[in-house]
Amino acid sequence: MRVPVIAANWKMYKTTGPAVEFVQDLVPRLGGREGVEVVICPPFTCIPAVASALFAEGERGIGVGAQNLHWEKEGAFTGEVSAPMLRDLGCSHVIIGHSERRLYFGETDLTVNRRVLAALANGLTPIFCLGETLEERRAGITLSVCATQLHFGLEEGISAEEAARLIIAYEPVWAIGTGVNATPGDAEEVISFLRGQLMKEYGSEVAERVRILYGGSVKPDNIGPIMAQPNVDGALVGGASLQAESFAAIVDAARKR
Ligand code: PEP
Fold first, then answer.
1. Distance (Å, rounded) from C-alpha 168 to C-alpha 212?
2. Domains held by the chain: number
3. What SS3 state is found at 27?
4. How far lies 144's CA from each of 99, 109, 193, 194, 246, in Å?
5. Residue 246 belongs to domain with CATH number
6. What 3-state class would DSSP assign to 37?
7. Fewer CB atoms near the end CB (10 Å): N or C, the chain?
8. What domain range is 56 assigned to?
């Protein structure tokens, strides 16, 4: 039985004050959280403040993640942040290959792969994002695009044991930040297909263990039917993760699945 994951992607929002206020507002709202894992991925600059605020609230069960990392552990890479640096701040997770990074920062399947390998080698759980554009969906190539991103993102030296630790986020690009979410059926179709691909590459035990999330305009009022799909194991939430009230409502819906 896979435990659902609800992960917040704050993107480039919040300075430390509002980040701490968010945590103080969120923790009492969550109450019991059996049956769901929660991860908050703030901007790099807020990671220590969020980790300290969670500690101060007595909250030990919420993971803190980054939104990117560099694959080298150190070096002359101005502006970059490495996996050991993220571990040093208390990160447990890292988002890799988000479509905004692919679109605006030249991220490719090759660089995604390097980052996934670096995360795994340093004990971070990758939240590996993939998904098709609107043009690709209209052209009827959604599944092959997602299969390619999955295959090359995980290429080279990922053992079955490491693959089982992955979290994958299926995020159709046309649904991110647009208010147009994929139908629960669309999400289930692609996510069950991805699980099938994992089965072919790593076997059924790994495929059954990997959590595959849906992301794209998830809100408290649409999470229910999405979570009801048998292969959907949670959500990567952008806009609705910026307010404690809406994020807590999404966590609650996942817990009740
Ligand atoms: C995201 O940033 O990964 C995302 C899914 O954003 P939103 O929920 O705002 O569509």
1. 5
2. 1
3. helix
4. 17, 14, 10, 10, 34
5. 3.20.20.70
6. strand
7. N
8. 5-255
Which residues carry out catalysis?
98, 171
| Residue 221, amino acid | D
Of 127, 96, 84, 83, nearest to 233 by C-alpha is 127
Ligand 1 mean position to 73 CA, how many Å? 28
The pTM for the full model equals 0.97
Within the chain, how many helices (H) and strands (E) appear?
12, 8
Best of 5, 11, 93, 168 to mutate for ligand 1, by most ligand atoms within 8 A of CB?
11
Specify burial of residue 245 (Cβ count, 10 A radius: 0-12, 13-18, 19+).
exposed
Return per-residue pLDDT of the chain as tens, 257 residues: 899 999 999 999 999 999 999 999 999 999 766 789 999 999 999 999 999 999 999 888 899 999 999 999 999 999 999 999 999 999 999 999 999 999 999 999 999 999 999 999 999 999 999 999 999 999 999 999 999 999 999 987 789 999 999 999 999 999 998 888 889 999 999 999 999 999 999 999 999 999 999 999 999 999 999 999 999 999 999 999 999 999 999 999 998 77
Atom of ligand 1 nearest to the CA of 171: 5
| Whole-number CA gyration radius for the chain | 17
> What Å distances lie between residue 160 and 86, 124, 149, 234, CA to CA?
24, 16, 18, 22
Residue holding tokens 């890799």? 96
